[in-house]
Every structure is written in C-alpha cells, then in structure tokens.
C-alpha cells in the first residue's frame, strides 16, 4: 500500500512539474517580434497597388501564410485596424479582410503589434497604451503562426492552442471555423459601413434551437427551420463552416453544418451553400454590411493570379442548379431604406396617408409624436413587416387591443395584424414592408394629424 501511495505521489509531482514547465515557458527570442505601424502606405483602390476590400490604405506586416497576411489598414485617416487579409499581391482580384483584432478601437500611426517573451500578443498605441491583447502572458506560449486555413494561433510546447483567432470572429467564418452555443463565439456582427469600421446593425446568432439573423439584436428577419430540432431535448451544440462530402468528390459542397445534442448519430442539420469550386477549401462566409449572408470561394491557380467567386447569397431572388429557392431580398430590413414597399426583391412603392406613390430613397415616415390626439393610423392591405415571418406575434387578440397597445407606446411606429389568426405585431421601426398575396394581412401606420 505504501509503494502504491508513493507511486501516486510521484505521478502527481510529475504532473505538477510538467504543468509548471508549460505555464512558465518563455517564447524563444527568435519567435518574438515587434512591428511598428509606420512607413509607406499602399492604396487599396489602385490596381497598380493591388485592390483590397473597402478601398483602404494599408501596410502589410511580415507574418504571411499563403494566401493570408496581417496588415494595418484604414478607411478613415489615422484610424488603423489590425486585420488578416486573404489574397495575394499577384492577384488582380479584390483581397478580402477575414479577421480583425480591434474593430471599433482603431490605433494611430506608430502603433505597435508585438509578441513578447511572456507570450502575450499586444496591439498598443505609440505611447504604450494597450488597445487589444490576447491575455496570454505566462500561459505557456512558445510561438505564433498563421495557419493555412487562416487561423492565427499562439501555441504551447506541445502544439496546443493557447489562443486562436477562430474563437474571435467579427463578420466572417472561414472553413473549419465554428459558432458555439456555449463556451465560445456565438455570433457574427456586421460592419457598419465601408468607411466606418464599428459593429453594424446585423448579427448572425447560434441558439439552442435555431440559427437566427437579427436586426439591432432583437428583431429577427430570418431563422433556420431544422425538423430535427423540433424534438424536445434536441439542441444545437455548434455550427461549423465545412466542405461536405458527397458520393462523388466533384459534387462536394460548402455548408454550414450543425452538430446537435441528443439527436441521432446521422443527423447533421445544415445549410447548403453551393458546390465546391476549383477543389478549393479557401472559402469564407460573410455577414455583409446590408445584413445578407454570402459565401465566397477563392481560386489561386488561374493564369495571372487568382479570382473570387460568389457561390451563395441567402437573400437573392434566384435559384441554384438544384432549383433551391433563396430568401426574397424584401426580408432584408434596409432593402428599401428607411421606408418602402417591396415585392419580388424590388422596391415598388412609398406608402403615404393618401395612398402609395413611387418609391425613392427619400421615402420615410413622419414622427407621429406621443399624444394620441396628435396622430392617426392609415391602413395598408396585403403587407407584412420584415419580422413577421420569423416571429409569432401576440394573440389571439382583437385588432382594437393591438391598436391600443401601439397607441399607448410612444416608440411604436405602427402595428401589423393578421385577421385570419388574430395575431398582432408591434413595430418600433418600419423599414422594408413586404407585399404579400394574403389579403388578411394588414399594416396600420402612425402618422401625425396635420
């Protein structure tokens, strides 16, 4: 028994000693670096200087693994993002930004990007103020790498990832990258605009029972409908962008595949995102500035450089080769700007209290004010709000009660009512309204009494 206890003690001591060695590992001097944001700028809108997404000015940094490279880039003067670019200088196609360290927290000229001997990866201003870091000091990091799949990693002496960029997506997923319901990244967030690199209005979120696209965090304009998840205890664990194998390799396809809990071993709900082109695993899924989901693939061996192909667009009135119907663009909240009627992906009218007139970008509603005596409602028949398709509304409820709820809510801009089911939706933003064939669907829009 004493010998057994002694053996256990030895094992425990070895384990502690091994853990101590890993945690106290020092990054070798030849693996540390410090890059300064200074020197000549390249221009991302000039074909002579290689075109980059958002037409920025940028400075490439030495870390490079084909076709990925880290750069400082900006779309407004002296406000730089540290981003990972996908593409090569030989390409005559636009190079894309597929990961960013410091969205919404830009750095200035002479900022530094460094990996110290303690293993912490730091982006700091010239005065030393830390803007972004991996918080990996003294956690066993011995090296930095950009992997061939675009994952930026810090590794320990055993090759394990202490930190990886795949756990911190912005608006993009690369092949092999996942969203997770628990314990990891759970959403993509759009960019605000081409020039304004802060979080935008749209998010793509993984939830236990569905994948959802939200406008301003609480207004869903699309969600998945996987039959497997209708069972009580079956939930999503993660969703990974993968190349799905088929019987014939030439028919392999890109998909966003979900792993589920308490399901059958063969059940993998997924979204088909187009047949693999060029036998390439260099694809990415992007939540765009406009709230649309698109998948692009990269071909690197064409004559004269490389090219991109758009394989999948979620909101696009079209069919793929298999006849799959995509979502109508009318479900995009901003398809018709601040206000407008949409049909078959086109803006077809501007509603007013006096009827529908020709749509233009100036189409908008007038502020109704808060006093019930100062506004009235006008009716639109055969119309739905962009949230109606993927939310249940409230009810059954009388239309008068639905209207009363909107009237008492100063923020309510109008309400939507289905007479066939007595369902009510309150709208705080109107945006794009869809023309529908169902005459039991009504919209009631607040307008000031002039």
TrEMBL record:
Under the heading InterPro entries, the entry gives: Bulb-type_lectin_dom (IPR001480), Bulb-type_lectin_dom_sf (IPR036426), SLSG/EP1 (IPR035446)
Q: Which residues form the Bulb-type lectin domain?
A: 49-167
Q: Name one Pfam family in it.
A: B_lectin
Q: Does the keyword Acetylation apply?
A: no
Keyword annotations? Glycoprotein, Signal
- Write the signal peptide boundaries: 1-25
PANTHER family (alphabetical) = BULB-TYPE LECTIN DOMAIN-CONTAINING PROTEIN, S-LOCUS-SPECIFIC GLYCOPROTEIN_EP1
**What protein name applies here?**
Lectin
Question: What organism does the UniProt record list as the source?
Answer: Helianthus tuberosus
């Amino acid at each position: 028994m004493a010998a057994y206890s002694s053996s256990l003690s030895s094992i425990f001591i070895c384990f502690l000693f091994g853990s101590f060695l890993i945690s106290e590992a020092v990054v070798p001097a030849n693996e540390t670096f410090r890059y300064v944001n200074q020197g000549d700028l390249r221009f991302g809108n000039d074909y002579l200087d290689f075109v980059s997404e958002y037409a920025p000015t940028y400075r490439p940094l030495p870390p490079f693994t084909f076709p990925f490279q880290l750069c400082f880039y900006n779309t407004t003067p002296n406000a730089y993002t540290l981003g990972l670019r996908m593409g090569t200088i030989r390409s005559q196609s636009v190079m894309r930004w597929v990961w960013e360290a410091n969205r919404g927290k830009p750095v200035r000229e002479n900022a530094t990007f460094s990996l110290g001997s303690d293993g912490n990866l730091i982006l700091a201003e010239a005065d030393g103020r830390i803007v972004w870091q991996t918080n990996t000091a003294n956690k066993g990091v011995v090296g930095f790498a950009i992997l061939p799949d675009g994952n930026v990693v810090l590794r320990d002496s055993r090759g394990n990832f202490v930190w990886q960029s795949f756990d911190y997506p912005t608006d993009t997923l690369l092949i092999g990258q996942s969203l997770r319901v628990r314990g990891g990244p759970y959403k993509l967030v759009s960019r605000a605009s081409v020039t304004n690199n802060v979080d935008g209005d749209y998010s793509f979120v993984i939830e236990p029972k569905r994948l959802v696209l939200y406008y301003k965090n609480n207004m869903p304009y699309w969600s998945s409908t996987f039959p497997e998840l209708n069972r009580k205890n079956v939930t999503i664990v993660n969703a990974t962008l993968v190349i799905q194998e088929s019987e014939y390799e030439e028919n392999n396809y890109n998909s966003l595949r979900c792993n589920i809990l308490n399901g059958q071993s063969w059940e993998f709900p997924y979204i088909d995102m187009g047949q693999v082109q060029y036998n390439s695993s260099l694809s990415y899924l992007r939540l765009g500035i406009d709230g649309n989901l698109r998948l692009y693939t990269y071909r690197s061996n064409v004559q004269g450089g490389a090219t991109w192909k758009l394989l999948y667009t979620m909101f696009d009135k079209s069919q793929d080769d298999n006849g799959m119907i995509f979502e109508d663009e009318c479900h995009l909240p901003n398809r018709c700007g601040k206000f407008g009627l949409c049909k078959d992906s086109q803006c077809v009218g501007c509603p007013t209290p006096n009827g529908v007139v020709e749509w233009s970008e100036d189409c908008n509603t007038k502020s109704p004010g808060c006093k019930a005596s100062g506004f009235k409602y006008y009716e639109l028949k055969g119309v739905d709000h962009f949230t109606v398709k993927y939310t249940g509304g409230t009810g059954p409820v009388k239309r008068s009660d639905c209207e009363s709820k909107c009237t008492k809510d100063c923020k309510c801009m109008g309400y939507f009512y289905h007479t066939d089911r007595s369902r009510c939706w309150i709208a705080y933003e109107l945006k794009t309204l869809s023309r529908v064939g169902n005459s039991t669907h009504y919209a009631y829009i607040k307008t000031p009494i002039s």
